[in-house]
Automatic annotation (TrEMBL):
One of its GO terms (molecular function) is transcription coregulator activity. Keywords: Repeat. GO terms for cellular component: nucleus. Residues 1-167, 348-369 are annotated as: Disordered. Residues 168-224, 226-281 form the FF domain. This is FF domain-containing protein. It comes from Brassicogethes aeneus (Rape pollen beetle).
Length: 369
């Protein structure tokens, strides 16, 4: 990403570069500001190393060129010395034997070349180290670029998933609104409803939903409709004082048939079934309330079962007390079952044995007057 900006060099400042790349997705994919700045500084360091290596390469080129020129000069000088060799030999004979010959210029040149060669070896070793360091830096940068790409890919994938999820939620909302507006009869089939819904422009807003998804939402909508209508119908029965656990449907139907909560609920057959289910639930509730009455009656204890075995009139005494409560009277139509509930409770207390000492948290028991 940084290499794509030719104006970014090793002298650039992070604050300036950050403004240039702020809109790039590869930049946004990195959450840590410190990490971004650290990678930028490493990039500048790498540019500095590249610049240094280029200068060293240029100096090496100049040295090679100078060496070539020097070799040429040495060759020309050698040719000239060959021509002058005879003259030098003659001149050397004329010189006094005590005179020390001048120092050989070739030895000086050779020493200079050896020194230069040593310097070249050091430079090559340093250049090799610089190349290895540069290679490591570039490898590290490439790995971090890959990491950025992976992070960006994950970010884009998560964003796509979030977009798809949001799109699906919107489609579900549109379809549910369509059902709420157009489907108010729980007796309609899915095939019938589809023909109705397709005529509304909002049907196209739910294109992303599959056939099974739409049918499931339709079934959920029907369940919601039935549940609301059932609650309203039961509310009507609760408000009808003539309804008891022994009421018949024909009798109650005459009382509620004009109420919208009955007419909008369902057919007469379904209303009758719901009425019978309602009475069953009421009976279960009544039995639970009768059990609470037994728990509140202080005369009933863990000794009641043994007392009953010794004296059969003990049951009559208890029922005489219970008769003052409507929770007992409401079960008059099932006297045998009510008596069995009392016996079951006696047996339960007998199995438990004596109760623990009373505490402040123990519920109040019904006292005998």
């Amino acid at each position: 990403m940084l290499r794509e900006h030719s104006d970014v060099d090793r002298h650039s400042h992070w604050s300036e570069v950050k403004r240039k790349v702020d809109a790039d997705q590869r930049y946004k994919a990195i959450d840590s500001q410190g990490q971004k700045e650290e990678w930028f500084r490493e990039y500048c360091k790498m540019l500095k190393e590249e610049k240094k290596r280029a200068k060293e390469k240029d100096r090496e080129h100049k040295r090679e060129k100078e060496k070539h020129k020097k070799s040429k000069r040495d060759k020309d000088r050698g040719d000239k010395e060959g021509k002058d060799k005879g003259e030098k030999d003659r001149d050397s004979k004329k010189q006094d034997e005590g005179v020390v010959e001048d120092e050989d210029p070739d030895a000086s040149v050779k020493a200079s070349e050896d020194k230069e060669a040593d310097g070249t070896d050091d430079e090559k070793a340093q250049e090799l180290k610089d190349k290895e360091r540069q290679a490591r830096a570039e490898a590290s940068l490439r790995e971090r670029e890959k990491e950025v790409q992976r992070t960006l890919a994950n970010h884009m994938r998560d964003r796509d998933k979030e977009r798809e999820h949001h799109k699906r939620d919107e489609a579900i909302q549109h379809f549910n609104a369509l059902l709420a507006d157009l489907v108010r009869n729980p007796d309609l089939s899915w095939r019938e409803v589809k023909r109705i819904l397709r005529k509304d422009h909002r049907w196209d807003l739910a294109d992303s939903l599959g056939r099974d998804d739409k049918e499931k939402l339709f079934n959920d909508h029907l369940e919601h409709l039935l549940r609301k209508k059932r609650e309203k119908f039961r509310e009507l029965l609760d408000e009808t004082p003539e309804v008891t656990l022994v009421s018949g449907w024909k009798e109650i139907k005459r009382l509620v048939k004009e109420d919208p909560r009955y007419t909008k609920f369902a057919s007469s057959e379904r209303c009758e079934r719901e009425f019978k289910d309602y009475l069953k639930d009421k009976l279960i509730t009544a039995k639970g309330q009768f059990k609470e009455l037994l728990q509140e009656t202080k005369m009933i204890s863990h000794k009641s079962l043994s007392n009953l075995r010794e004296n059969q009139s003990h049951m009559s005494e208890i029922e005489e007390i219970l008769r003052n409560d409507k929770r007992y009277l409401v079960l008059d139509h099932i006297t045998h079952e009510r008596t069995q509930l009392i016996l079951n409770y006696f047996e339960e207390l007998d199995r438990r044995g004596p109760p623990p000492p009373p505490t402040a948290s123990e519920p109040n028991r019904r006292s005998i007057k």
